Amino acid sequence: MDFQGVKGTRDFYPDVMRVRNYVVDAWRRVSLRNGFEEYDSPIFEYLDLFTIKSGQEIAEQLFHFTDRGGRHLAIRPEITPALARMVNARIGSLPRPIKWFSVPRLCRAEQPQRGRLREFFQWNIDVIGSDSVLADAECIFAAVDFLREVHLTADDVVVRIGSRPLTILALGAAGVPTDRTEAALAVLDKRPKLSDGDFRKFAAENGLTGGQVDFLCRFQDCAEVGEARELLAGQEGVAEQIDSLAELMAALGSLGAAEYCTLDLRIVRGLAYYTGVVYEIFDRGESLRAVAGGGRYDNLLEVLGGPKLGATGFGMGDVVLGILLEEKGKVRPEIQTGSLDYFVIAAEDGTFETVMRLVGQLRQRGWSADFSYGAERSTGKQLKEANRRNARTAVLVRQDGLGVKDLSTGRQEEMTVEEFLRGVKAARD
Amino acid sequence: MDFQGVKGTRDFYPDVMRVRNYVVDAWRRVSLRNGFEEYDSPIFEYLDLFTIKSGQEIAEQLFHFTDRGGRHLAIRPEITPALARMVNARIGSLPRPIKWFSVPRLCRAEQPQRGRLREFFQWNIDVIGSDSVLADAECIFAAVDFLREVHLTADDVVVRIGSRPLTILALGAAGVPTDRTEAALAVLDKRPKLSDGDFRKFAAENGLTGGQVDFLCRFQDCAEVGEARELLAGQEGVAEQIDSLAELMAALGSLGAAEYCTLDLRIVRGLAYYTGVVYEIFDRGESLRAVAGGGRYDNLLEVLGGPKLGATGFGMGDVVLGILLEEKGKVRPEIQTGSLDYFVIAAEDGTFETVMRLVGQLRQRGWSADFSYGAERSTGKQLKEANRRNARTAVLVRQDGLGVKDLSTGRQEEMTVEEFLRGVKAARD
Questions:
Q1: For position B422, what pLDDT does the model report?
Q2: Which of A44, A192, A335, B61 sits most deeply, having the most CB atoms within 10 A of its CB?
Q3: Cβ distance of B17 and A2 shorter than 8 Å
Q4: Ramachandran region of residue B302, left (φ > 0), alpha (ψ -120 to 50) or beta?
Q5: Helix, strand or coil, per DSSP, at residue B127
Q6: Is residue A105 a contact partner of residue A77, using CB atoms and an 8 Å limit?
Q7: How far is Cα A25 from Cα B292, in angstroms, rounded to an integer?
Q8: DSSP state string for B176-235
């Protein structure tokens, strides 16, 4: 028999696990310092919860099943529906704005390809209960704060910020009928992935005239808020949306994220449920899928049986991010390598009981410590194991005392067991 | 529409999530300082992987499904089969002993009840590639090191240690035929859960004579290794098993875990795959299920297509542990409560841009900092929010400078923005 993991899933061996922990720990640390609180939902839920937001076709991408009790269940492909469910259930008692984050494990029954797996982890940051553009700014700033934390600079990555409502106003200005809005947004969403010729062909097939395409491209190519204001001048509601975008960019400047952020009205986001600002984070080389994507979604809680409540947030998966960190040389070797504070060595016969006693004492004081089970092994072999384990200090136990050796400098001090233990304070004092 | 989570699963709201993180962080910290490296496996695998170890009947307890590609898959109910699969795949290159840990999310399609849910987390510690009893001792010591870490004393919990091979020798000495060994072990495994009368009835139904039951009870009730040695004197292989148990208890003493550990030959463990030392951790009151259980399983890697290799380890779930921590008052309020380093307040009109700048600067230096979106709110209301969020320091921003207020002492210092920022070092310096 030959057992293997399922294609599109990953085995996290210790070296790979350390890189995952490096990323997840940074997500957590950055979230907490940005004032977000962690939550989590179950790995499986009723199937309905996931299909109601994004439609039955998402069931194609779900691992779903019927349990012995006849319940139709699915492994979560995203956490936002569960977030909305949880917030709705306590809507009366949660102080607002609700600033929550999570790092869910998610599964999608997709064909595995570069940057896309069947199982992955996704950082989710959301602010619920605020209509303020500051909530959007906080989410984007948290993303930038994380990018800086893992040493991705503004030369490596860019946050491209668009606006759903402004794009809808542009569609109106171009003369696209209201009942064609969703279809036209889906067309525009494809533009960054197509050549100009292919895009125009695709747009024509979907009922947009050449003049409409020209106008919409001019709108999408506005490099500054002011240009879009001029282009859409006279349309009702434009001033409000323009002011809101300008306020967002100013807030990002005040918080200190401006260098990473750029207005990009080509960003529309595929999912129908976005209602305001939308954004995606890309590598500057644009050789990869988006590293993250998000925006405002003010209707979702209502769709899931709750009140209409302002909500905004994003998701950042670990797969594309992992490729990017690797390509940019940001996964330093020491991230993948384990280490120990102490390796305790039986350097003479009859000292093994003391070795174990020292190891137990060190661990209980919070220091990582280990030893070799082969008590009869030579001191040299045990020292080799200490080095292989990246121990900082080797403690050589002899009948008459200890040699405490700093393995980076090679310096060794002699002392008694009691002197050594007196000198070892609790690790977190 | 009314959406709910599935019965037997948990929604981790921030207060509950903090308790989960408190436990998981302690599991990780203790594992690392005991020299274990973290690994993880996918949440779903081929169904076969889980049924081959424990038989088809375990499929009853699995959430399993067939995906669009016709693959028979299951959500993992335990991680040990995946551990064996991963180790087997790299058996030639992994230095031994392999000391690995994991904190997998696991799912079982069981009826939810006290201490048992359909989704839970389980700390797994394993040593693979060593036949030494020191490997068993290390696992048990790590469990004890964790119990101490979360302030569960030897008065709260006990590690009960038994031996499969010694019990099998006792069955031989009692005259139980070899082909009845597994059945007789299953009978003995039930003893702690039954009254003496019920146990004798159950044993008789399963073919044990009254004399055999008397002998086996005498064996199981031995309080010390020496008693068992006398009782089984003359049986081949007894000396070896007794010496091994004695060595284990001595090693636990040297490491510093003796006060938590006791010999208890009633411990047999239900699963057929154990081959050596077995143990379970219980609350002293014995009102709960086992907090943890484990032992040596030297055949599993071979069953999964690998070599015969010594292996030992345990699992500790978060559900029974959580009840115990709660009952013993070990979940201190501060574990459930979030906090902030700084809350920055717009104390005068026209200061909001400075508020945002300070918040951004503090976060980028590693400090947790937040502010109120309602820039027009009164200073009093913003101070109230600072207190609700357990901020340590409030920074009141005025046109002419800052008031920096320690919220525990109430002391306030006046300074300029520049003075403040000069004084705020990076959080992890």
A1: 94
A2: A44
A3: no
A4: alpha
A5: strand
A6: no
A7: 27
A8: --GGGHHHHHHHHHHGGGS-HHHHHHHHHHTT--HHHHHHHHHHHT--SHHHHHHHTTT-
Among the listed residues A173, A372, A72, the one whose alpha carbon sits nearest the alpha carbon of residue B35: A372
For residue A275, give the nearest of A163, A139, A191, A182 by alpha carbon: A163
What ipTM is given for this predicted complex? 0.96
Give the confidence band of B374 by pLDDT, cuts at 50, 70, 90. Answer: confident
B246–chain A Cβ distance below 8 A for any pair: no
pLDDT tens for each residue of A206-254:
999 999 999 999 999 999 999 999 999 989 999 999 999 999 999 999 9
The pLDDT of A302-317, averaged and rounded, is: 95
The single residue listed with the structure tokens 């097939």 is A205
Is A6 in Cβ contact with B71 (below 8 Å)? Answer: yes
Contacts of B187 by beta carbon, 8 Å cutoff, 6+ apart: B202, B203, B206, B208
- β-strand partners of B397: B346, B402
Closest CB to B353: pick one of A20, A254, A366: A254
pLDDT at A2: 65
% of chain A surpassing 90 pLDDT: 92
Closest to A363 (Cβ–Cβ): which among B33, B52, B338?
Answer: B33
Q: Which of A360, A373, A389 is closest, CB to CB, to B135?
A: A373
- Residue B354: pLDDT above 80? yes
Whether B107 sits inside 8 A of A44 (CB atoms) is: yes
Q: B103 touching A, CB under 8 A?
A: no
Assess A167–B contact: CB distance below 8 Å, yes or no.
no
| Number of Cβ within a 10 Å radius of residue A415 | 15
Distance from CA of B207 to the nearest CA of A (A): 34
- Hey, are the CB atoms on A67 and B109 less than 8 Å from each other? yes
Query: Which positions ≥6 away from A250 have C-beta within 8 Å?
Result: none
Question: Does residue A415 belong to the interface with chain B, where contact is any CB pair within 8 Å?
Answer: no
